[in-house]
Amino acid sequence: MVQDLNIFIPAKFKRKDMKLKKNIAVSESGFIFDPSTGESFSMNNIGTEIVEYLKQDKSFEEIKKSMLEKYEVDSTSFEKYYYDFINSLQQLKLIVDE
Amino acid sequence: MEKFAFERPFIKRLSSGMPSKFGMKTKIEPITVIDDNLVKDLINKYGSPVFVLSEKTIRKTFQGAKRAFTTRYPKVQFAWSYKTNYLDAVCRVFHQEGVWAEVVSGFEYEKAVRNNVSGDHIIFNGPDKSKDDLKKAILNDSPIHIDHFDELYCIIDIAEESDKIPKVAIRVNMDTGIYPQWDRFGFNYENGEAWDALNRIMLSGKLDLIGLHTHIGTFILSSDAYRQAAAKLADLAVGLERKYGHVVKYIDLGGGFASKSNLKGAYLPGTDTAPSFDEYADAITSSLINSQIKPENLPTLILETGRALIDDAGYLLGTVLANKRLADGRRSTILDIGVNILFTSFWYDHSIIPAQPFSEHTEETAIYGPLCMNIDVLREAIDFPPLIKGDHVVINRVGAYNMTQWMQFITMRPNVIIIDGNNKPFIIRNKESVETIISQEKIPPHLQ
Does this complex have an ipTM over 0.85? Predict the structure, then answer.
């Protein structure tokens, strides 16, 4: 099922070099500060957790595994919301191509 | 190990300095229960979307309105505005409370008769009354509120052919200091047309002039407009008594009281701006009591309040179909509730409230309906928590006009249920099916 879905995931998301900006500060309560632009952001708990994993350079598969174990969510739904969230991070210029 | 509830991850930019257009964040509680029935259970049993009416709220709101007027004025009669919500069950709740019927078409008149309202308690308003409608109303002794001279002459013609004396009132339009001034219905007060109509009625000798009526507009946020309207009708009543020695039995101030819904473009929420029943009652009754009408001739005060009596009792329950991102990065949420069934979303910014607990995080979201039409927008921008597909929402204050102005367009109209005084739900209008729609269609032989 997941394998099938992967076919439809744009190539840019599959790239390993999709990283969070190095210098951003993330607090436990979901507050992000980007010193390069001076902008700040807030996230909900799940968003904060995903960003933490991204900071640790965890892959999508690793993140998904941890989240499915912890939360009441199925694999397809998680994948959908995960990539939507990544899209948001990109729009807010918090992700860089390295 | 028990798993935690999952919420869609999201992030939003924080901005300081400029105030948010949403102003101060207001805490919204989810609506999970309506009159002791779980929203989830109602949707599981009756489908999504579904309209829900609370009989308890209808009766409580009516009692509040009645108290506001009867404590200030000796003779008060309410008439239920059928066009606001003419589902039979709703009408019957009002009729059980002693409310008359106020109808504006032959169809509505027929509905009132079928709801066992006696003819003399059906007020017949509106510009569209056929000769047959008028004959029926005259036969049943219903008060006919004359809208124009063509109707007046038609009634005189009918009266000449029958031995019944039609009971009539005229509808008067007037300047009450508000905009827009509704001058398309009835006879104008300021230019003397109303007196012209009254003179013709009195001099015809064929009609029984029992009342005077006005309906100054809709969603009137100024109680003072009613004060002026009541004063002008009282002036006509005094004039009739002086000139013809004729005393009218009632003065009908119509409807138009605002509900607590939020009008589009309004600066403050309806809960802050809509006058209370007490404010309306004070303006109207003090105006009548302080008029030149002799105390022994004080007419019955009739009110045709619709929206303000039923809006709060109606809920529309629905489900999130999808979330997507717009080109500018804004979130949009698609519900199974469209403008086809929520007609009032064209003029209200409805409150859309999640039906399950949600986090304190919100983001600017556009809420769309399910129709494949660009106009199907419930809210252009609302501070909304991140709901996921399958989550339920409740839209409150939808009791007025939606269940009459809705249209069968693209999807079909859903079940309507009422929750009675014992918190028991009953279907009062079945959802439509393909059969409902095609049963009205015919296919010519060459297309079969």
Answer: no
